[in-house]
Amino acid sequence: MMHEQIIVLQDRLLEALDWKLMHEKGPVTKALSLFEEPPSDEEKEFLRLQAIQNEREIELLRKKLTFCLEAKENLERHVNELTTELELTKKHDNTDKESKPAQLQDQGEADLHNLSDAQMEFKTLVDAIASASQREAEAHETVIGLAKDNEELRMQLKVLIEDNKRLIELYQHAFVNVEANQDGNPVNEDLLNAQPAATSDLHAHNSSNVEEEPKIVDEKCTNEDNFSRVTSVELCLQLEEMDEENEGLMGLHEKTMQERDVFKRKILEQSDSEAVKDILLGEKDAEMSEAAENPEVKHVHDSIIVALKDVLQIVRSKLELVQDKVVSTQDAVKYFKLLEMASGKATELYSRIELQYLGAQRLQEDITVLKSVLSESQEKIIAFEGKYFLPAASCWNMVLKTKSPAESRLDASFESMNQKKERFNHLQTRKNELSAARRRARESETELRSKIDGLKVKLGAYGAQRKEEEKVLFAIDNLDTSTAPMHKPKNYGKATAPLKSDEDWMKLRCELQKAREQFFMVQKEIKNINKCDYIDCEIAVLEAEIEDSWFSMLESDIERFVLDSTFTEIWEGRAKDMEASLVEYQDCVFQVSLKEEEIKMCNESLQYQARDRESDELQSKLNQAMRELGELLQDRRCLTDCSLDEPMLPVVEKVATDLEAVRIYVDEAKQLLLVDNQANQ
């Protein structure tokens, strides 16, 4: 990159010089073109000063060029040093890579040994996760079932409330119809149209309640907390009581529904009878017009209307009382729903804590059983070893005492021989590299020498040419003005010719300097290579050492073979007695290792459960659920409308009394309407 920048700079400087010379040679060309006219002294002085200025500029450009060439050469030297260092580091890395495979092999064997333990731990974790997910799914199903039951009860109560509201509207429409009949304008169509509208409103309200149910279920699932054992039992009892109360409410609800159906049937019958009355209205109009003229008949008619209004006012008051009672019953139903949600949450959390406790207890029992089996197997192994293996072990120890030194000597000889072989190979490659480097250096030395000689010849030729040009310039300066017009110049070279010759001379000079530096570096490299002749001596010494190591290893191997053969003879003599009991011994050893691993897994499971924060979280959620349940039980005073001094009644009794009052009010209203209907007939 630096070399290219220097070349570009040189080209730009040459272009600038050419441009300057082309634009400043006007006076010179003018004087040469007008050679017939005698040049004046002023023109000669001007030309001389112009030549001096041009020479100064050329010198400045030469200095800049030499400075750039020196910087380039320094950079090239630095690059060469960096390349040599990079080659040395690569060679060092190659030697390190050859020693790494043995270490990686040892590490791989250790990883394979630990792989079985990791697989067992992974299996236990997978089983624990599967059991936890199964328990969570079961709990979620129970929550969904309870939510569905609550929704059905809530919908039934909503239907009851809507029916009561519908009864009130029917009473109001009946009152309007009575007044309309008195005025001669029946409004039966409004009554018939009001019923389907009310039923459509009821269905819309039920659909909105169904849409709100998943929100309630999600809120219930997210607000799960822990609780204690004793309080969960109390909650279960309260839940049973609430179920009984709900069954009573359902019975009352069914009775109310039956009464509503009877009342609707009577209203429909009444609306059908009014269609017949409309036919007779034409006949009665004449009679009423005649009776209107009679003041006694008019007085009786007015008294009947006043009585009807009083009856309807009483019915309206009864229905308002029914509506109040229904609203209080609806609040009680909401309270039951919240109480059931809290109790269901408490039951679920209690079951989860109970499962954790039972799991830990089961693990403790398994550990106790495994320890007893392990102790029995260990006793069998000790007895078997004392009977068969102790004599063999004494023989084995004796052989090992004699065998281990021979093996250690063999291993040491083998290791030293391998090290020496590696050293020998390294020296051999180093020797080959040095010989190749020496050959390349010799070739480059001859090439540089011939290049330097050629450059010296070219510089001598350029020097002679430059001296001749200086003589010509000196002759031009001493030219006589009187004789100049008489002689016509024949040849005029370009103005840039001297400049180009100087530039070529500078290039040759720089190239010669660079070639000399390269030549000196090559000679220095050859000297350094010649200093490494000691490698041959080291190679000869290593060959002798490798041969000695080979003989010592062979002796150690023979000694080990003799010991192995003697030990084999001794062992075969004792193995005949051990063949019958060896299978039993192996079975005992396998059982011991198996039970130890099982005990280890159980202990790890217990430790994992002890470290797990789920139990603490469940306990905290249980306490929160119990607090919420206690708050709900305290809040029932507002539902029963009791003061602080009065004893607090159960919510079920309050709901039962409200529903009984609703039934009484409906019966009274129904009797009033029946009496009124009979009176009208």
Automatic annotation (TrEMBL):
InterPro entries: KIF15/KIN-12 (IPR044986). One of its GO terms (molecular function) is ATP binding. GO terms for cellular component: microtubule. Residues 44-92, 417-447, 608-635 form a coiled coil. Keywords: ATP-binding, Coiled coil, Microtubule, Motor protein, Nucleotide-binding. This is Kinesin-like protein KIN-12E. It comes from Zea mays (Maize).
